[in-house]
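debug: dumping io for the single-chain case to check the tokenizer round-trip. Nothing else runs in this session.
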Amino acid sequence: MNAKSRTTAVHVLSAAEIEAARQRLSAADPVLAIAHAEVAPFEWRIRDAGFIGLVQLICEQQVSVASAAAIWKRLQQGVGTVTAENVSTFDVETLRTFGLSRPKAVYVRALADAESSGAIDFGRLRDLDDEAAIEALTALKGIGRWTAEVYLMFCEGRTDLFPAKDLALQESYRWAARTPARPTEKELSERARRWQPDRGIAAHLLWCYYRAIKAGTIPAPEIAR
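debug: decoded output
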């Protein structure tokens, strides 16, 4: 079996493992302890890995959840099974008719070409450490660090990554810290160092905290300005 076709089982964290990580995070940082006290148990979410997973993340870049779902549905209807081989049969202009913006159509077609040529090998990607895997992904057209980190978290199940550029994470941390100013990407990344090796669980915790406040299931914190 070649590297392209092999698969590696993703270890999905159990409820007990997630709870243990949450306890460690709460002990390491009083800000996360606040979020932990409010957020119900959650599961580690795993998505399809490989070409299809990265294409789906490209569709989700800088749009709402609803818009991303609509784009993804149109792309599937147009392309069929979303594989590099199928995508390669369409030019950029045709891909645009499937709901993709021009930049995203360019990125998706470039990704198909990259996998077809061997420039990216999703099988070997699993064997790289986190930073090497991020470097391999960000070498691809249209793939920034946020997309790379989210891919590795959700599609490969890596548990010590924290996409500090994510605005929801920045806002969630601000709420938990009860501070008027949202942390910058650099500031949040530095803060996250103390959460190793559980930064991925910290991200899940803060995302859940953010969604719960937005949904009104837990009260929004009162923050002095």
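debug: round-trip ok. DSSP finds 13 helices and no strands in the chain.
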